[in-house]
Amino acid sequence: MTTGATAVDAKLARIRPALNQVSSALRSLAEHGLQRATQATVREISAVAQTAHHARLVRLQRDLDALATAVRRYLERDPAFRPAKFVELVSRVWLLLGAIERALSTARAVADLEPITGVPRRRYDLVDEELHVVAVAASGWVTDSGYVGVTSHLYDLQHQRFLQASMVRPDRMVGPDPTRMLSMTVSDVTPTTMQELCHGAWTLGTVKLSSDLRVSLHGELVIVPTAPVGRSALDPLVVTHAAQIVDRLQSSQLDPVAGVGSTLVLLEPVVVSDVVVDDTQARATAVIRDGQGARLSVTVSIRPENDLLIDNLRALMDEQWRPDGLVARATVAGRSLLLTPLTAVYAQPVTLGRRVGSTHLVHLTIESLARASR
Predict the structure, then answer these.
(1) Whole-number Å distance between alpha carbons of 43 and 39
(2) pLDDT (tens digit, 9 = 90+) per residue, 79-113?
(3) How far is 295 from 5, CA to CA, in rounded Å?
(4) Residue 174: how many CB atoms within 10 A of its CB?
(5) Is the bond preceding 349 in cis, omega lying within 30 degrees of 0?
(6) Which residues contact 132 (CB under 8 A, 6 or more apart)?
(7) DSSP-assigned letter for residue 205
(8) What is the pTM of this model?
(9) Residues 148, 169: contact at Cβ < 8 Å?
(10) Which of 91, 27, 114, 37 has its CA nearest to residue 68?
């Protein structure tokens, strides 16, 4: 047996004991129930998350980190705790365990498992042409596994596809506030800030792209501003009726292991109303009416990273800031259609500040309408 084959066998051999430990911890949680959970339960889940990390079970580790956070919130009586989210995480971990077990029985190399186990870093391949893109939406986010980031959604004009460019940092480095990342430059050698990349049109050179259409913000990426493209870049997102959102979601991947498919949509015209903050349930709700009068519900957890979104939803009720369109992420949970507003679209430009200047897009999770002017 060669040295390379021995190394592969050793890597595969680490996986099964890790799966056994995770299975044991999950079974213990199921037997005792959430009501009997203690801080020792959190420590046990965090410990097996580290075991999964050392076995290169990336997706399993992230779900376990999120599960530990959910249990911790329950113990701390955090209003952000959601029983449905806890059940979802337990189910995902259990399904992942089964999927990895089945794949392990036929795997000859660690790479055979990567479609299920995930990889620490995506593979990015060099694109042999410049890409002409325009920003159509952006969002700031914080994960339960300890990361904070800002994502710019870009439309590739030549290939008529949507790309994502994300800046991600551990929250222990920058804190749980995505807006702190807006002034950061995309790389050490690129003067373009993340907020600038969330607006306007750009030519990208030396592009590295992943199989799921994510742009690597590497040091050699060339970013050059180009002439504005106009409203036409948003056309592929338009839905004229809420029912079309469901039609689009039908073609998305609905996989309990990989996660629930989602899609970006642009509703226009749109009216936002009935924004209500419920402190006892730790959530804010709103109603969005599309051009046909259909009512769509929005629910936002009251968490620090969502404060700006909630304030902006209130502002959107004002006639001054009523948007001409709204870009939102649509997904399905159970029998419910979930809509998360991302970007307000205005026919007349809005001034956001020195770096961005006038823009037709206001990204509701990372930019404040209270500081904007018209």
Answers:
(1) 6
(2) 778 787 888 889 889 999 999 988 888 877 777 88
(3) 59
(4) 17
(5) no
(6) 156, 157, 158, 201, 202, 203, 204, 226
(7) E
(8) 0.78
(9) yes
(10) 37
